[in-house]
Amino acid sequence: MSITVTVSQLNAYTASVFRGDKNFRNIIVKGEISNFVNYRKTGHFYFTLKEGGCAVKAVMFSRYASALPFMPEDGMSVYVTANVEVFERDGVYQLYVSDMLPDGTGALYLAAEQLKNRLAAEGIFAEEHKKPIPKYPARIGIVTSREGAALRDMLNIIGRRYPAAEVVLFPCMVQGRDAPESICDALDFADISGCDVIICGRGGGSFEDLNAFNSEDVVRTIYNCSTPVISAVGHETDTTIADLAADLRAPTPSAAAELAVPLMSELLADMDALARELTLSFERYADDLEMQLDGMQKHLELLSPENRIRTLEEKISDCGKRLAAAMDLRFSSENKRLAHLAAQLDALSPLKVLARGYSAVYKNDSIISSAKAVNAGDRVCIRFSDGERNAVIE
């Protein structure tokens, strides 16, 4: 005998059948993700699991999705832990997923790769954000486990290479669920403790052992440190996301200790070389100052009143000598001229004429140049070259 039911009654009954069958509870289903949607408003994941030509819808609510260490993607082969239930409104069954694990690649590794790509897109690993490591740190902070061999190695190397540095340990957990929070707390404390550089790391181990240094919180704490951070996680072949975010990556904790401090013997040799260079520079500087002082003294002497007076005296003496020489020259020239004029005058002198047999007649001291100037009985004076004689005109 058939019965009549409504659609809602049919869907409700079907849903109760699925819920009541233990075979549909906490089953593990393998398939390939397609049509993946991360509904960001609620944080729920919606997707389809495909295998061969078959498909089943699935949903993973935010309380489970937020705990996933990786982000699902289309084409990813996964194992999901889920309950099979009927969505009564549509009358279709779907998987209600509570956990998911990638097939082939471990979830931790995949989560690390996805986080690395996302942080790289943000520029967290960009070189322009890297802070320089101080060359001569006075205070070195070490963030690592108190019991690890890595700590002993770093302390030995720093003590041997650069004993002048103060080393401060900021102990933390480096492995396990609580390790990321412990590392972040130690880094924050070291960052405000006046350290010049921080070494953060641990010794080697498996990928799972080192996974605390792939934590987003640890990476962002390293990035936000105002103190330069050297990462020192695992062995040379191990690379964590913390290595990429640090200001300097060391292949091992021992190498980090070597990178953090200089070698004291080399430093002392450099200091000796600098001392010699400083001495030479000081000597050259002193020589330059001495030369400048000599030049200033000579210049000051040139500007001194005594030197000015001496210079003026020399000028006066030189002028006197030139004046005397000029006067002598002038006197000599005038003497020659006077002699020449005297010779000319002598040549024109009446005495010269008298010496040749001529004579001059004077009347009342006036020379008589004409016979008409005298009369008979006048007394005259006749001047010869060798004397005078008085005479009477007849």
Can you offer a commentary on this structure?
- The chain has helices at 7-20, 62-65, 107-122, 149-161, 179-191, 216-224, 241-245, 253-260, 264-303, 305-348, 350-355, and strands at 27-39, 44-51, 54-60, 77-87, 92-102, 139-144, 166-171, 197-202, 229-233, 248-249, 360-363, 366-367, 379-384, 387-392.
- The chain has 394 residues and is an alpha/beta fold.
- The model has no long low-confidence stretch (mean pLDDT 88).
Strand fraction equals 15-25%
**Radius of gyration from CA coordinates:** 62 Å
H and E string: HEEEHEEHEHEHEHEHEHHHHEEEE
Class derived from helix and strand content: alpha/beta
Largest sheet: 5 strands, mixed, barrel
- Quote the distance from N terminus to C terminus: 223 Å
Total helical elements: 11
Number of strands: 14
What is the overall pLDDT average?
Answer: 88
Shape: rod-shaped
**Fraction in helix:** 40-55%
Unreliably modeled segments: none
Strand order within the widest sheet? 1-2-3-5-4
